[in-house]
Amino acid sequence: MLKLSQLVASSGLILLGLGSAVANDLYTPLHEAGRCAIRGHCGSKSLFGSQLPCVDNGLAEEPDDKLRQQLVDLCGPKWSSGPVCCQTKQVESLKSSLSTANQIISSCPACKDNFYNLFCTFTCSPDQSLFINVTQMVEKNGKNLTTELDQLVSKEYGTGFYDSCKDVKFGPTNSKAMDLIGGGAKNYTDLLKFLGTERFGGSPFQINFPVDYAEPKMEPRPMVPKKCNDEDPNFRCACIDCPSVCPELPDVVQAGSCHVGVLPCLSFASIFTYSVLLFSFLVAVGGHVAWRRHAKRRSERLRLLTDATPSDDEDEGDLTQNGAMFDRPQKTYVINTWCDAAFSRLGHVAARFPAVTIVSCLLSVLLLSVGWYHFEIEQDPARLWVSPTSAAAEEKAFFDDKFGPFYRAEKIFLVNDLNLSGPAPVLSYDTLIWWMGVEEAVRDLRGPKTNSSFDDLCLKPTGSACVVQSVAAYFQDDPEAVDPDGWEQTLRECAASPVECRPEYGQPLQPNMILGGFPEGSSDPTEAAAMTVTWVLNNNKEGSDEVKRAMDWEQVLKNYLLETVQEQAKDRNLRLSFSTEISLEQELNKSTNTDAKIIVISYIIMFLYASLALGSTTLSFKDFIRNPAISLVESKFTLGVVGILIVLMSITASIGLFSWFGLKATLIIIDVIPFIVLAVGVDNIFLIVHEFERVNISHPDEVVEVRISRALGRMGPSILFSAVTETISFALGAFVGMPAVRNFAVYAAGAVFINAILQVTMFISVLTLNQIRVEDSRADCFPCVQVKSARIHLSGSNGNQGARYYEAPEESLLQQFIRKSYAPRLLGKKVKAAVIIIFLGIFAAAAALLPEVELGLDQRVAIPDDSYLIPYFNDLYDYFEAGPPVYFVTQEFNGTRREDQQKICARYTTCQQMSLTNILEQERKRPDVSYISSTTASWIDDFFQWLNPDNEACCVVNRKPCFAKRDPAWNITMSGMPEGTEFVEYLNKFLKSPTDEDCPLGGQASYGTAVVVDAERDTIPASHFRTSHRPLRSQDDFIKAYASARRIANDVSAQTGLDVFPYSIFYIFFDQYSTIVSLTATLLGSAIGIILIVSALLLGSVLTAAVVTLTVFMAIVDIIGAMAVMGVSLNAVSLVNLIICVGIAVEFCAHIARAFMFPSRTFMERAKNRFRGRDARAWTALANVGGSVFSGITVTKILGVTVLAFTKSKIFEIYYFRVWLALVTFAATHALIFLPVALSLLGGEGYVDPESDGGLEEDLASRRYRALLPDGDSDSEDEY
């Protein structure tokens, strides 16, 4: 902006200084109308200095015709008559200097007129002596050169001048014109002070602007400033430059704005509803108690006349026979009977031909696993969390294709916050000199593989200088320019007027881009606690040689900063944090490697527990003491290991199967799917083994194949129930576009389904072989070794070697506890009431917490705790005072037509009020809502300004302005603007025009890559309008900024009919949050619906299915509520976990629900007299499968989850340990506490269990099993 600064030299306009001054009449003795104070050029102070005006207190003179015409052309028709105090060379110099300012402010006629009027009046007014007083001068070559003067300007004009210009925008630099013409002035006195300060590149002499003046004959000129919203339309500015003429945008109603007081509506509704229900219940209970007492008093005499009987008030009866059996289900359910028969036949085949079954399963798994040859892991976050067909992905692809990939940024923060007293200024003379040496060393770095340097790779908008945003640029990157005593003043001046301290690449560097951490209430750059430096590299398509070269150099930069510069900073008691373009992906991969160890340990513990726990089903401690050899036979460690291997085989087969189809795996799949399949698989293994042991006891004389068939016939439908609901629930995720969720869902559904198939085939065959081994007294793990001493305890019968009733193992302590203590107490009336109240209360609290669940995934969580990126992200949020750039992109915009031009422009009178640029400008004025904070760079406005013939150095053809003699002439109504082929022709010239001091409007640097021109079709396939977000300091800020940009683009499209979308580098990572709430609700809701349908079909009762579905729903809501309490935000990772929660919750509930609907006769008869109807069946379900659910899935998961608490990875600690802990807690308590109670109250009518309906034979088997109970194991009412 050198010419703008030289404006002072040609006109003597610049004013500096506030306060009062004493008149010095030595050089301007006479103050009267028609008399001058300065006139003409008298030379310069030095050889290369600017011309200074002559001291001249003579009379004003009539100009010749040439001067008159020049003056009228430049300053307007009011100068067409009367004498003047200027000469031809002055006017010519003034015109040259004003041309630069004109390019910056000409879009606002009022600002331009006030600016020109001030300069022209000061330079040529015939009454100069009335408002100008020369106070100092030097004599040179016999001439008096003015070196200092005072000028009087009224407050009215100064304020009006400033107000008309303060909001004018300069698009090429995305800044306000005031930053360029006024040094970022905040009021009119600052503006004049900036223009009048004597300095190199600025005013060549000092001009003061006193408020009060002692000379009585002097006073400010009575000039009236034009307003930006002037009544005269010829001076009225456009909306973008004058807020007062802008239409108001409608208010934005933000999501989640419904509140009742301080509570969100959902929270209020949840709390209110529960309170009403609880109050109603308490009133009902109170009324019931009062009625019972009244009834008791009325029947007192009757009681005295009769024998004493047990009170009905107690929650028990005293029937002489087993009342539960009176209510035993009598009907059969066809589907269950079919399933029972089918699984019985399947079990018999698998047990009859174990070798064939096992080999067939192994070959099938092996065949599917061949797909591992095509196995790939997707690690690119952009392709993980965004569907390739989503708007964000398509928009990123469009942007990269048309404008090139976004730049690669290498960024550091240097912070002074290691002092015990708190943050202190980071900059000092020594620090500046040291840092300039660091930057020099960075420029000299070369990649070891490609030998590329920073200069080879950097972004060069002007073609020569690299973009480095650093405080060193304020000192021309030259240590010698840093004055040990004056560097602070230089820094302040550059921060106040960045245009005066531009780096080599030409763009003014705003202080908020390089400094941060100012003390509260201060903006002094010397007090900043942090500085930031950014090296900008060109980017290219992924995998290209250019990207490889950049990554090679970035690796060297990372090592240099990590190993050298951080240590040097520590020596200076400073802290340096940084990030390169390659850093995040590297640290994410490091995090995965760290997590792998913890995950493996977790799974090993679950494997060991499952293997050992299975052996305890038939081996009691008493048996072990009596005959230790029995443990070698009764152990089921091998069986447990095989069960775990089947889990791994199902995972392997699933991954192989879908790898055949090119479905890439994700780290989530590798980490999580074993957890799911283990949860499902181990539970099913426990159920099968436990049921098989019961069959061994009740039918000891039958061959192994028949006993296996009976066990699978009973448990098979239950396994089918859980497997079908889980598989379908997971498979629903396949319809989601987000690859991370979709691929996980497909792999998980496949693994669960394959696991279920292997369990009812291969595991059954292995279980058969294991039982044959046991009955032949052979050692576990070493079946070739026969343990003869075990035969003393395991004597055979009829050569069948089956366990006889008197040899049956004792009930485990867990089973005894559930049967004798837990189940009876849980199903008492008072306990049931308490359970319902407590669980509904927890549900209401969780529902109230749903609005508190935050969205997002903080990068700091996804990387290891000891990563060098953690301090960087902390500093980025704490100290960076600028927001990321955002581009509003037009597609297939036909800019050759006037009506389309008016849809995007803003600086001309015929532009649409709701044009693209006008809407963006209006949104900028409400950054709290729009998250937009900077002026929009509008290429079409600057293009038309570039065509303005007044800007003689811009659009030039044959050394003349392009539109100099155009008809119609260039004007702010756009009537003279080009259209059609001419538009495309001039636009191409504009985009190639260099951006320099002569023509800052040139489009090469600012818009060279912002507009794609199709000359063949005379259209613009793509263009973008650049602005920036306000500083974004949290995940919530990023999510809302993206949502706001999307809203704004939609508004623009609706108002203009153009195809517009927003783009910023971070949008693709936050696109998921625009739909994740609805996606979560849809997925979970669909899964819940599937559970209801499948449950109703397989259980044969809509009521029971509804209870199961309600239980799962309540557990899921409780887990989400716990997420809010535990600080777990909703994102793709937690969404995957919530899908897992649905599947595992079903696994917890399915077996108990089926045992309730098809109660075992053997167990139901043991209910004795206490329970009737649904209570008896609920007791039976708990006694039958409750132990398996607790030991098989609950304990297994608790052990596995506990290990995750020791992970060093925040993402596993937060999104896996916390969520899975909540899952195990809520799923287990709902399945083992709430579900039995709910079934006892609302469950549907039961059916006969086919395995228990065998006539006399089954009755005898049942009696045999009951006879096994020791005397002390009676379930009579006396024990409760």
UniProtKB/TrEMBL annotation:
It is a multi-pass membrane protein. The keyword Plastid does not apply. Keywords: Cholesterol metabolism, Disulfide bond, Glycoprotein, Lipid metabolism, Lipid transport, Membrane, Signal, Steroid metabolism, Sterol metabolism, Transmembrane, Transmembrane helix, Transport. One of its GO terms (biological process) is sterol transport. It holds the Pfam family NPC1_N. GO terms for molecular function: lipid transporter activity; sterol binding. InterPro entries: HMGCR/SNAP/NPC1-like_SSD (IPR053958), NPC1-like (IPR004765), NPC1_MLD (IPR053956), NPC1_N (IPR032190), SSD (IPR000731). Residues 1-23 form the signal peptide. GO terms for cellular component: endomembrane system; membrane. It is found in: Endomembrane system. Gene3D superfamilies: Multidrug efflux transporter AcrB transmembrane domain. Residues 595-769 form the SSD domain. Its main location: membrane. The chain crosses the membrane at residues 271-291, 353-375, 598-616, 637-661, 667-689, 719-738, 744-769, 831-850, 1076-1099, 1106-1129, 1135-1157, 1178-1207, 1219-1242. Belongs to the patched family. This is Patched family-domain-containing protein.
